[in-house]
Amino acid sequence: MQGGLRGFDSCGAGDAGSWVITAPNVKPKAIVHFLGGAFAGAAPQLLYGLLLECVAAAGYTVIATPYAVTFKHLDCAKRVHQQFNDSLSELRGSPGSRSLAPEGLPIVGLGHSNGSLLHLLIGSTESTATTSNVLMSYNNKQVGDAIPVPGLLGTLAPSVLYARTALPSLPLPSSSQLLQQAAALLPSFLNIDEGGQLSRAALALDQLGLVVGEVGDGATDFEPSPSGSRQLVSASYQIPSTLLIRFYDDGIDETMEMDAILKEKDPSKVNRLILPGSHVTPCGGDIKWQPGAQFSVQDAVGQLVKSQLQADVRRLSKNVIQWFDAAIV
What we know:
Layout: E1 9-11, E2 18-21, E3 30-35, H1 44-47, H2 49-57, E4 60-64, H3 73-93, E5 107-112, H4 114-125, E6 132-136, H5 143-146, H6 152-166, H7 175-185, H8 202-216, H9 226-236, E7 241-249, H10 255-265, E8 270-278, H11 297-327
Parallel strand pairs: 3-4, 3-5, 5-6, 6-7, 7-8
Antiparallel strand pairs: 1-2, 2-4
Helix pairs in contact: 2-11, 3-4, 4-9, 6-8, 9-10
């Protein structure tokens, strides 16, 4: 974690809340609404820690809104936008946190993968949601490509229906209880459950059951479909400036397609940047590698991996910060 940061604080209750990180004793420049990728976006405080810490250390209040992966993309976009607004209202309504999000500050969006899609949908339905967006590794594939197992959905749906009716309901510990138990077993030097970051990440486990339940209810494609989302963005996206970031080693990125759509609307409002890394580069974290009593080959490899991951994330964060700094002037 970056020295001098407050650390992640929870804002709101349960799945309707957000995670907030800021630099203390610094007047914030703007508010960043962060949305992570599918599955990873359910626990941004764990999986995007270093990136968000770097952005916060540059003088931004970062509000990361967790969400469960779903087939209903437009509904999800509306829901996370409301979660963000509710979290912002809570910050502004509390004397102890009002200074973190003063009225009148610019709001900018930062998204990764499916989170980039959600910001595009938000910007197509809420024209004043943000003044600028940075969208990393945009991706919006058909269900058949996103779940590349032929016939899986057709087989899974009747299986879910059978399980609902034929199998007994067994008393099992909740996801929160499981994570609390896991956190208690981890070495203390990892600090991975600081502020409940792990034990309050139940949504990360629950979301798999939620999406399987949608399949059982008959979901077979995203709503809107990828082509429907592209049409909506092409017709209605109104955010004044957007930076699209893709990584060299990313075989599932669709940034170029979105770049063409946005430039057709107004080429002066969109820029594209290609950086070293892969689709999961934004998730690279501050790995707490603890060398043994005698430095080993494994320690050397661990330190090398940590160094490379952090270098990619810090390069990424530098470019994100430069874009936001210019956008809010």
